[in-house]
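Supplementary material to the annual report.
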Amino acid sequence: MAKRIEVSGLHAYYGQVHAIEDISMSVEPRSVTAFIGPSGCGKSTFLRTLNRMHEVIPAARVEGKVLLDSEDLYGSEVDPVAVRRVVGMVFQRPNPFPTMSIYDNVAAGLKLNGMRGKSRLDEVVERSLRGANLWNEVKDRLNRPGAGLSGGQQQRLCIARAIAVEPQVLLMDEPCSALDPISTLAIEDLIAKLKEHYTIVIVTHNMQQAARVSDRTAFFNIAGTGQPGRLIEVDDTSKIFTNPVEKATEDYITGRFG
Amino acid sequence: MTSQTEIGEKGTAAAETRRAARAASTGRAGDRVFAIATRGSGILVLVIMAAIAVFLIWKALPALRSDEANFVTSQEWSPDSTPARFGIAQLAFGTVISSFLALLMATPVAIAIALFISFYAPRRIAGGLSFVIDLLAAVPSIIYGLWGLQFFVTKMDDVAVFLNDNASWIPLFGGDSVGGRSILTASVVLAIMILPIISSISREVFQQVPQANIEAALALGATRWEVIRMAVLPFGRSGMVSAAMLGLGRALGETIAVAMVLSTASGITLHILKEGGNTFAANIANTFAEAGANGRGALIASGLVLFIITLIVNMAARAIVARRKEFV
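Predicted assembly:
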């Protein structure tokens, strides 16, 4: 189920703006890879190229290769919609569908995939909510609006929605930045549990979080304003945080800049 | 000496506090004026509504008392004869069916246009197209009436005959003496007239759909149409209902275009291709000038019914919008 991602020579643009430059790296299956770096360094943009969400923005485009177990996501005959069905995403701000109940939010992706039949849906919805550590809190109010939950619960609902369709990769774009410490802890515990089944890539501004949850860490940086973001270094998290190769990485993680 | 200075300083401080307080109290006065102005405007609307209702009832009562026929169920309209006999059945039927048909035709097209402008059209085309749609709303209804009478009616003659020949098994298209000056033609003209308002309100509603919801749907692997179904239409539902109801309100009250297009004839029939039919507003416009005192009272009574129908439509719209309020 979990797949390996192999990126080579990837560039991303917003119109004329060169957002990220020549990124090559790999993401191991069943592990957590954290992207860290200062604001504007392109880590979120890079994340969004991994499920072809980057090109949703008008005039945005991508060059290079992203292989998902040797299949190029940017191959000419590949449908971006199909890519997004196997590479799930959780956003910075919890974004449950406001018009849908908790149940329908989780079932939304399943219905897109053509799953019908109440008993099957019930089963997957329960499994997904359990998987997102939310079942016990919402099992008595599945028909209430998803937007009525607390921020942390909403984010776990979004995770449940993303994992309901059993993606091969789960992308998380600063999933805890809008949450309080308790909810953050709940999500971090969840990430540790999810990596048994999924390939997880998480963008975070919180270096402690990167150190806590990830197996590997990639550090991104920009040379200056208007310059494209670049991958500086990617390695095991313990190595990045104790003995990085690049000086820029060390400066960043020790708080000397950025 | 020192204490004097202290007192002096305290005095200055106190004066400053007073000044500050006075500034604040000017603010409070402004607040009060504003509150009164807004509350006054709100009350004024209610007063106007009540005044209209009272006026209609007061003018209508004498005519209603003189009515020898049943005002609700009679299809006759001779209020100036003795004894006076008139009823609104035909008017109510014509008004409701033409407006309803117009709504039925206009809403899907208007929403499709709004969706196209918001999600499918390239930006440059979208701008031009929404401008043209808004322009449609600015065309005076007399122009629609002239166009309807001089041009559209002649085209609809053939359409009516064709539908009658080929689809008369549908009850709506059956019957004799079909022609262009029918309820169907009036409905089409009304549909064109209410299209822009439904379309532009729907467009505004669609533009308020949070980007986060659209991205959530996209990230789940939704196609563009699935995004619209999952995130856009449910979010815009109440807005679209309001838009449609505003359109319906305009269709119900539309006078001159309908009065020009329809060839007035009495009788209630479901055959919408038949020449003739009548509506409240068209009947008032066509007959008010020649009506006698009792006739005018009768027309005002029919106006009162139109007023009540539009009130009910609006209240129904609100009820629909409020029903699922906890979502959205």
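Residues 131 and 237 of chain A are 25 Å apart (CA to CA).
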